[in-house]
Amino acid sequence: MFNSLIAKSLPIIPRSVVRAVAKRYIAGDALSDAVRVAKELARKGAAATIDVLGEFVDSRERALSETKASKEVIKAIEEYKLSSYLSVKPTSLGLAVDNDFGYANIRALVEFASERGIFTRMDMENSPYTSATLDYYRRLRAEGFNNVGVVIQAYMRRSEGDVLSLLPLAPSVRLCKGIYVEDASIAFKQPDEIRANYKKLLRILVDGGAKVGIATHDDNLISDAENLLGEQPAESTAHEFQMLLGVREERRNALLSAGRRVRIYVPFGEDWYGYSTRRLKENPQIAWHVFKAIFKSS
Description:
Layout: H1 2-9, H2 15-22, H3 31-43, E1 47-52, H4 60-79, E2 84-88, H5 99-114, E3 120-122, H6 130-142, E4 148-153, H7 159-166, E5 172-176, H8 191-207, E6 211-215, H9 219-229, E7 240-244, H10 249-257, E8 262-268, H11 273-282, H12 287-297
Parallel strand pairs: 1-2, 1-8, 2-3, 3-4, 4-5, 5-6, 6-7, 7-8
Helix pairs in contact: 1-12, 2-11, 2-12, 4-5, 7-8, 8-9
């Protein structure tokens, strides 16, 4: 009850308080912060995926600026030889402005990354952009780009059909539960339903020859995936576990100690508020930290 109350109150909580609590989930404002965190993770045995925070961009100028910022991430990954790839949100690069404009920006990034042997992952956003994002992925693969992956959200009812349609491409898929608020007509709403669909999709992907990023902090799903993958050492499997920066670090460390390949999502940038509030709402244990931050700021 208390956690739910805090989560619902986030829109009226001062941004300074949200930032104080959420800073553990974000590398910092600058690319140099993301590089530092990626290096720290590498020393612990984990890989990274770096994301420039920003989404739902509604102007060409802003989309071009976001594209340039993502290009700088690719340069940094190459320069510092980071064990990392790039994650991008299609709406940050112009998908919501104009479909072809957004595709041109993403294609340019994927090509730039391909020339440097660097992988790029298109994140999945809310339902108005699902089909367009998957279409982008198919177009990129049809043009011969193999250094690109996509995300499937287990809470979407359409996801099984999407996964089956992608299998002929031998795709690289990050499988997550999904975090955006969607209507029950298109999304599973009950935790058990979402878990069941996640397990089903994971098996379809693994059996179908896809490379899978098992993106979850749910112990039930992590244990299920470990059982499915068996005793394969990290260097011999196409699959990896993926987690968010600052979330369940003890579980991350346990996976690494067990010899599992783990990749951490490392976001950075000034556009931190939307990402932070979603993370806080998602994590039921964070309410107490928000409460303490409110008290300290008063």
